[in-house]
Amino acid sequence: MRIEEIMTTDVETCMPESTLQEVASIMREINVGAIPICEKGRLIGIVTDRDIVIRGLAEQLPSDTAIAEILSEEVITGTTDLSVEQAVELMTVNKIRRLPIVENNRMIGIISWCDLAITTHSTTHSEKDAIIKNSKLE
């Protein structure tokens, strides 16, 4: 199965000038733990709820600080031609919970561990075993 079959395509993003408060409010509103940051449609970073707490609140940054101040610029990404197994491997090796899917540097979707769990839940036991074995999660 290819990742494009299960990725979320309706992804909420923010701009680098969005504030910590705005991004945190959006996270709460849509019940997510990460927001991709895009500029002119191009993925330039990602911010997690942990980033807001550790890099923002713990550093006593004002809530109107631009999210660009705390975003993670080095984002591991995937492409639509990835298989589910390859996405699991990529996420496992890089210890990430979310994998933005890009095409020509433009974000077109995102996959999370939850998406993968739902997908592997609907597969057969032998397919699940292969996914786990190939991702070194045993």
SSE diagram, text form:
Layout: H1 20-30, E1 34-39, E2 42-48, H2 49-57, H3 84-94, E3 98-103, E4 106-112, H4 113-121, H5 125-134
Antiparallel strand pairs: 1-2, 3-4
Characterise the protein shown here.
The structure is a single chain. This protein has one domain: CBS-domain (Roll), CATH 3.10.580.10. Helix content is 36%, strand content 19%. The protein is built from 5 helices and 4 strands; from the N terminus they run H-E-E-H-H-E-E-H-H. Helix 3 packs parallel to helix 5. It is globular, with a radius of gyration of 16 Å. The mean pLDDT is 87. This is CBS domain-containing protein.
Identify the strand order in the major beta sheet: 1-2
CATH 2nd-level architecture: Roll
Main beta-sheet strand count, sense and barrel state = 2 strands, antiparallel
**Share of β-strand residues:** 15-25%
| Gyration radius, rounded | 16 Å
CATH topology: CBS-domain
Task: Summarize the helix and strand pattern as letters.
Answer: HEEHHEEHH
Name the assembly state.
single chain
Secondary structure tally: strands: 4
- Look at the structure and give the CATH class: Alpha Beta
Q: In terms of per-residue confidence, which ranges show pLDDT below 50 for 5 or more consecutive residues?
A: none
Shape: globular
**Distance N to C terminus:** 21 Å
Mean pLDDT: 87
Task: Name a few traits of the molecule.
138 residues, CBS domain, CBS_dom_sf, CBS-domain, alpha+beta, globular, CBS domain-containing protein, two-stranded antiparallel sheet
Summed up:
By secondary structure, this protein is α+β, with helices and mostly antiparallel strands. 36% of the residues lie in helices and 19% in strands. The chain has five helices and four strands; from the N terminus they run αββααββαα.
